[in-house]
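hey m, so remember when u said the tokens were messed up on ur end? i reran from scratch. heres the input so u can diff it against urs
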Amino acid sequence: MDRINIDGWEPTRNDYRQLFQKVPCYISVQNPELRIIQTNELFRQDFGDRVGELCYNVYKRKTDPCPECPVAKTFADGQVHSSEEQVITRDGNEAFVIVYTSPIRNEQGEIVAVMEMSTNITPVKRLQTELTMMGHTVATMAHGIKNILTGLDGGIYVVNSGLNNKDQKETLKGWGIVQRNVARISSLVKDILYCAKKRGHEISVIEPNQVVLEVFDLFHETAALEKIQLNVDIDPQLGSVQLNSEDLHTILSNLVHNALEACKFDLNRREHRVMIRTDHKGPIAIFEVSDNGPGLPEEWKSYVFTEILSTKERYGTGLGLLVTKKIVDELGGQITFSSHPKEGSTFRVSFPIKSVVSSNSSSNRYHQSGLIKSTTIG
């Protein structure tokens, strides 16, 4: 590199060293084996002192090189390469980076190392995701509101018809339709409010098994009407915990609703089942909702908790999963899922048990009496 002289200032070797250390991006210098031989301060701050380690193990905790490694490409052709990568910092957080690589040559012109410069664009990616979610949300909400209004119109028509004919049975039928669609509006507005802003969560000592039973009672009639077997299996050792009962109710309700929708639109199986289950492993409270529906489409699995996915013919996911993920994150929990085509899906929510107060809760008494509740399928 040519030396620079600006207004009488000529940078020294130490100036270049300071520039290397203080530049606001991750810099690592790697040898042909992809081992890190030098890093700058920002790299060490977010990834630790990893000199001598393999870059793909440091950045991605992998045991093999990345298939399209830009560093390897630069070693091969001596050109500058760039890519967008997802990496894992020393504290386990995922980050998105734009990577540029440049060859370092010796006096003979041979490439002896490659400098990799990575700019953290995680805030930009988050904004991009939020804007995408906003667009999906508007489209999904418009479609959902249209369906609700159609349902209300139908209910009002049936009510008016019943009143005109003085038919109490028909009037009550129409009123039931109106009530269900008003409940849908309430649920929709609640989900929008959850997504719109971060909210406070009042934590108190609750009986999580009792909340599970309440969710069961909420959905068991709907499940029976759809000929879906809804079961609940509660862990008698899961006592009182510090959590928010309304939030837990919302989380489980969203997951059960999606599971029922999955079964409802699955035409490839005669008998459908949904299970709500509680468990605990050490200091962790676990809540699972599983179904034997069609499973999630393979192309959805990377986006389940980041975008609105709503294809009712395949699976009943939508804004509810975004809301669920948001609540779980704000409460300090974790949500994961497993899904297999034609076998079904299982969503698992776990929370640290901050307090176990009593083992004689009403939910424990349910289990101790040998009762595992389920819908009755006629």
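this time it looks ok to me. Residues 2 and 11 are 11 Å apart (CA to CA). if urs says something different then somethings off w ur setup not the seq
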